[in-house]
Amino acid sequence: MRASKGVITAPGVFEAIFEAHYEEIWRYIGRRLALDVAEDLAAETFLIAFRQRDRFDSAVGEVRPWLYGIATNLIGRHRRAEVRRYRAIARTGPPPDDEGHDQRIVDWLTAKVTVDRLAGALARLSQGERDVVLLIAYAGLRYDEVAAALGIASGTVASRLSRARTKLREGLG
Q1: Hey, what's the torsion of the CAs at 66, 68, 70, 72, to 10 degrees?
Q2: Chain-wide mean pLDDT for the chain?
Q3: Rounded to an integer, what distance in angstroms lies between the CA atom of residue 147 and that of residue 65?
């Protein structure tokens, strides 16, 4: 969704932006942080966007990457908790399923090994590499959209993703 400079200040336009993107931003934050934090940070993302709506310039980019940029900056404030969470998952694995079925246990153990390794590999990435990987993997953003969201050059996105892929391959064996 595009909005021209100044038009985003109209309440109906911002409401349409909220309706179109809230759930997507909430899911992205929920994947990066705990779900109990996602609701608050998604709301804060849109509060910040609303407060800064007069500064949005569609000539610079689209609304969606702009919102992801705000959300990613908020996630950055929770970075230490995110790294601790990945390290905890790497140590303990995903929570067990409440069902006692034998196949569920086998599935859980298999998933635990995979999740442990992936979480550990993600925790070892730099902040910038993790942001790029998760914006592409979770949000499905293109390189140019990731660049706009993080305020970096597209070449930087490509190099961070390349380094991250190498580290993830090494970490996952």
Answers
A1: -150
A2: 82
A3: 8
In the prediction, which pLDDT does 2 show? 44
Q: Left (φ > 0), alpha (ψ -120 to 50) or beta: where does 146 sit?
A: alpha
As a whole number of angstroms, the distance between CA 122 and CA 165 comes to: 10
Tell which residue, 137, 168, 125, has the closest CA to residue 28: 137
**pTM higher than the cut 0.90:** no
| Residue 99 to residue 134: CA distance in whole angstroms | 31
Kindly give, in sequence order, each residue whose CB lies less than 8 Å from that of residue 26, ignoring residues fewer than 6 positions away.
38, 39, 42
Sign of CA dihedral 158, 162, 163, 167: positive
